[in-house]
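Shipment paperwork, digital attachment
Item: protein structure file
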Amino acid sequence: MKDIHALKPLLIGITGGIGSGKTTFAKCIEKHGFPVYYSDTRAKEIVNENNVLKRKIIQLLGEDAYDENGCYHRKWVAEKVFGNAELLSQLNSIIHPAVGLDFEEWFSVQKARFVFKETALLFELGLNKNCYKSILVTAEDNIRIKRVMDRDGKTYREVEAIIAKQMPEKEKIKKADFVVYNNSSIEELKKQTTVLIEKMVDSILI
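Attachment content:
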């Protein structure tokens, strides 16, 4: 049997579309004692912390990208790039490398056998190629839409439009090593988390 504590960390990717509950699942993983890097959360922080990034975003989108207090104007930016694939691509080309560097710095000091990275664009950016395993958190569309409506105050049509622009769930399911179906309660999600961790541990204890 391998000494799993003497080996380098194995990176596990966690992803899911809007309203799937991937962040809730990631927090369940974290409660089991495993470190989790929250890409979406860090991106929101980095656009406010990194002055070089700020200047690049303002150069691309204009002064309105930040409010009078110098804070990233997320809603304004989202409306600005929504439906404009070229502009969104340019914005992502500024933000994604900065988040990638931040992740590498974080990952370099991790000691746990399994290290998790939560990101909405795991498959879209090909980040799963750098992962030992990938986990997709998914749910029925009507459940996802209701969650986002309750959480963000968006209309059914608005959420539906966002989902339509994301990679189809069928494609993600084909790419994922593990699929978590988050259609019911948090208790059920916790059970699935425990089972999945046991499967991953078993896969390296040879």
